[in-house]
Write a structure and sequence with these properties.
Rossmann fold; single chain; alpha/beta; eight-stranded mixed sheet; 5 domains; globular; about 35% helix; 21 helices; seven-stranded mixed sheet; binds 2-acetamido-2-deoxy-beta-D-glucopyranose
C-alpha cells in the first residue's frame, strides 16, 4: 500500500490513464489518494479511537458548541464532563468494566451521545437498540449483543417492563434514565449521574482497546426474520467516520442530524464523522418535513444528512417562497433516486448531494463525489485494485448467482445489472454479526472466481455505465418475476408517483393460484385532498411501463407502513394479498379499458377459481 501510495503521489502513472478516462481522471485519482491516506493514517496509530479524537477536540475547543438540542447547547467540554459522570456512575452502580457491553434503548437526545462516550471511556462496547422494537424482538436484539446492562429512556419504561422478567432471569441490570422509579428490578440512573464526579476517567480503564476491538453493535433489519447485530470495531468506525472529511465537510460546518442514532447513517456518517471534523451538531428527536428547513435556517445548518425517503418527503411538502433561503451547501446520505434528486435541486437550490453506498456491515462502499445525478459512485480501476469487488451475474428467479460448468461466477458486462460482492481481505474485512455464525456465513460467498476465494454478498444489484458511474438497481427481494420477466419494484414505484394524486407508493408482488411468479400490486398513499382516479393512473402506467410490470391490484392506505428508517415493508402486504374480504382498505383491479376499477368479491372469486386469467 505504501508503495502504491508513493507511485500515486509521484503521478508516475498519470499519462497512462489520462487518455483513457480523461474527464474524470483527476478527481478519481484525488479520491483514491485520499482513501489511501486515511487508511495509512489510522493504521499508524493502532490505539487511537474516535473517543481519542473527541478528547482532542475537547482540548482544542472546549467551549465550542458540540450538540444543540431543543434550544439547549452542550459544548465539547460539557459533553466531556457529562460522560465522565456517566462512566463513573456505571462503574460504581452497574459494575461495568473494560470489555463489558451495555445496551442503549432510547431515542435521539444528547444523553444518547454522552452515554456512548461515557461507556467508551471505561472500555465498554455499546449496543444501539432500535427504540421502536418491543417484546420478543427487543429481547432477541439485547441478547445477541451479550450485554449485561440495559439503559432505557423514561418513556420506554412500559416496553422494558414487558421484558423485565426475562431480563431478570439472566441477571441483567436495568437502568431507567430517570431520578425515580418504583418498579422492582429497575434502577434509576439520572440521580446517580448527577451526584457523580466529573473528573476525567483514566485511560488505564480502557488500556486494552485497539482498533480491532469491538466498539458498537448496530442492528440491521433483514427482509426476513429478526434483526442482526452488526459488529463495528474501532477501525470500521474510523473508516465510516472519514466520510465527511472525504466529501469536504469542515469544522466550521453545522450538521443537522434527525435520523435515528441507532442506525449507521446518523451514528457513523453523522455523529462520529462529525466528531472527527470537530463540528457542531444540531440534533433532533425525529425528522419532521414541516420543521426541516425552519431548523436549517434557525441554526445556520450547512450540511444535512438524508436517506432517499427523507428527500422525497421534503419534495412533497407544499412549496414556499423561502424554499431556497437557507445555508445548506451539502447533503450526505444514501438512497436518493434520480428523479427526487433533480426535483430537490430544482426546488431547494444548489445543494451538493454526496450519495454514498455501503451496508452497515459491508466491506466495500462507494461515494458519488462527482455529484452525478442518480449514481452512487465510481468504478475506478485503482480503487478496485485496493479493495477488490465485482458485479456478478445473478439469477433472480432462483435467487442465486449464476455459476458456470466449473462452478464459478462471472462478471456482468458494463451496462448490465449484477450482484455486488466485495472480496473479504485484510484491508476490507467482514467482521460479521454478533452471536450469529449462521447469519455471518450466509453473507459470505465462496469460490466466486477461483477455488477458496471469499466475498461479502451485499444482496444488492448494481450497474456500471460506460463512463464508469455505478448505479443502484435493486435489492434482491425487491424484484419479482411475472410472465417470465423481472419487475423491479423501485422502477414501478418511480412511475406511480408521477401520477398527480399519488404521494407514495409501495410496490410488491402477490401470488395468484394457478399462476407462476407474482403479479404486481401497489399500496398507495394519496396526497391530502386528492381522490384516486383509476383512469388517469392507468394512463400514466400504460404509457410508462411494459404490461407485465403494471400493478394489477391497488390498495389505498392512509399511511404506508415503514420501518424506523422509513424503509417500506413489503412482506406483510404481499402476504395480505388482494382478497376484499380480508382487507379493509379500498381495493382496485386493473381493467384494460376502464383503468383501475373497484374490486368486488365476485371478481376475486373468479380469479381464484381460474375463471379469470390474469
Ligand atoms: C444471578 O445472580 C445470583 C446472585 O448473584 C447468582 O446466584 C445466580 O447464579 C446468577 N444467575 C445467572 C443466570 O447468572
Ligand atoms: C446565523 O447566521 C447569522 C448571520 O451570519 C447570525 O446573525 C446568526 O446569529 C446565526 N445564528 C446562529 C444560531 O448561529
Amino acid at each position: 500500500m505504501y508503495v502504491l501510495y508513493t507511485v500515486l503521489a509521484g503521478l508516475a502513472i498519470l499519462p497512462l490513464f489520462l487518455h483513457i478516462i480523461f474527464p474524470y481522471f483527476m478527481r478519481d485519482l484525488q479520491f483514491v489518494v485520499r482513501c489511501i491516506n486515511f487508511a495509512i493514517q489510522i493504521r499508524k496509530k493502532p490505539c487511537y479511537t474516535i473517543l481519542d479524537s473527541f478528547l482532542d477536540k475537547v482540548k482544542k475547543h472546549p467551549e465550542k458548541p458540540f450538540i444543540v438540542f431543543e434550544n439547549t447547547t452542550y459544548s465539547y467540554l460539557d459533553a466531556d464532563k457529562q460522560s465522565n459522570k456517566i462512566g463513573r456512575s456505571l462503574m460504581e452502580f452497574a459494575s461495568l468494566k473494560e470489555g463489558d457491553t451495555a445496551a442503549l434503548f432510547l431515542g435521539n437526545e444528547p444523553i444518547y451521545v454522552f452515554l456512548w462516550l461515557g461507556l467508551s471511556k471505561i472500555g465498554c462496547k455499546v449496543a444501539l437498540l432500535n427504540n421502536n422494537i418491543r417484546t420478543k424482538s427487543l429481547l432477541h436484539c439485547f441478547s445477541c449483543s451479550g450485554a449485561n446492562v440495559l439503559i432505557a429512556a423514561t418513556e420506554l419504561r412500559d416496553a422494558v417492563e414487558e421484558v423485565l422478567p426475562a431480563l431478570q432471569d439472566q441477571n441483567i441490570s436495568v437502568f431507567l434514565l430517570s431520578a425515580e422509579c418504583d418498579t422492582v428490578g429497575i434502577e434509576t440512573l439520572t440521580d446517580k449521574i448527577s451526584r457523580a464526579s466529573d473528573e476525567p476517567l483514566s485511560p488505564d480503564l480502557r488500556s486494552k482497546i485497539t482498533l480491532k476491538s469491538p466498539a458498537i453493535y448496530i442492528y440491521t433489519s433483514g427482509t426476513t426474520g429478526l434483526p442482526k447485530a452488526a459488529l463495528i470495531n474501532h477501525e470500521r468506525m474510523w473508516m465510516a467516520s472519514f466520510l465527511q472529511r472525504l466529501v469536504g465537510v469542515t469544522s466550521d460546518d453545522v450538521l443537522y442530524v434527525c435520523l435515528p442514532l441507532y442506525h449507521s447513517s446518523a451514528f457513523l456518517m453523522g455523529l462520529t464523522a462529525g466528531i472527527e471534523r470537530g463540528l457542531t451538531i444540531i440534533l433532533r428527536r425525529k425528522f419532521s418535513a414541516s420543521q426541516f428547513w425552519d431548523d436549517c435556517r434557525k441554526y445556520n445548518v450547512t450540511v444535512i444528512q438524508y436517506i432517499g425517503e427523507l428527500i422525497r418527503y421534503l419534495c412533497n411538502t407544499p412549496k414556499k417562497a423561502n424554499d431556497r433561503n437557507h445555508k445548506v451547501r451539502l447533503a450526505l446520505g444514501n438512497g436518493i433516486r434520480a428523479d427526487a434528486w433533480s426535483e430537490f435541486l430544482h426546488r431547494f437550490g444548489n445543494v451538493h448531494i454526496r450519495e454514498c453506498y455501503g451496508a452497515t456491515e459491508g466491506n466495500v462502499g462507494f461515494i458519488n463525489y462527482m455529484g452525478k445525478v442518480g449514481a452512487i459512485g465510481r468504478d475506478i480501476f485503482l480503487f478496485r485494485k485496493l479493495v477488490p469487488y465485482a458485479l456478478i451475474k445473478y439469477d433472480t428467479e432462483r435467487e442465486e448467482p449464476v455459476r458456470d460448468s466449473r462452478g464459478f461466477c462471472s462478471e456482468v458486462p458494463r451496462g448490465e445489472a449484477g450482484l455486488f460482492v466485495g472480496k473479504i481481505t485484510k484491508t476490507s474485512p467482514f467482521v460479521g454479526y454478533a452471536k450469529s455464525n449462521d447469519q455471518t456465513e450466509k453473507k459470505k460467498l465462496r469460490d466466486v472466481f477461483e477455488k477458496g476465494d471469499l466475498y461479502f454478498n451485499s444482496g444488492d444489484l448494481l450497474k456500471v455505465d460506460q463512463d464508469g458511474f455505478i448505479y443502484f438497481q435493486d435489492r434482491i427481494g425487491d424484484t419479482f418475476r411475472w410472465k417470465g420477466e423481472n419487475v423491479a419494484t423501485t422502477e414501478v414505484t418511480d412511475i406511480m408517483i408521477l401520477v398527480d394524486s399519488i404521494e407514495e407508493a409501495n410496490v410488491y408482488g402477490v401470488m395468484v393460484p394457478g399462476h407462476e411468479g407474482r403479479i404486481g400490486m401497489a399500496a398507495l398513499k394519496l396526497k391530502d385532498g386528492h381522490g384516486f382516479d383509476g383512469y388517469d393512473t392507468y394512463q400514466c402506467i400504460k404509457t410508462n411501463l411494459p404490461s407485465y410490470a403494471r400493478p394489477r391490484f391497488i390498495r389505498i392506505q392512509n399511511s404506508l407502513v415503514v420501518t424506523g428508517t422509513f424503509k417500506q415493508i413489503k412482506g406483510k402486504l404481499a402476504k395480505d394479498g388482494f382478497n376484499p374480504a380480508a382487507i379493509q382498505d379500498p381495493l382496485y383491479i386493473l381493467d384494460e379499458t376502464k383503468g383501475y376499477i373497484p374490486m368486488t368479491q365476485e371478481m376475486y372469486n373468479s380469479i381464484i377459481s381460474g375463471r379469470i386469467r390474469l
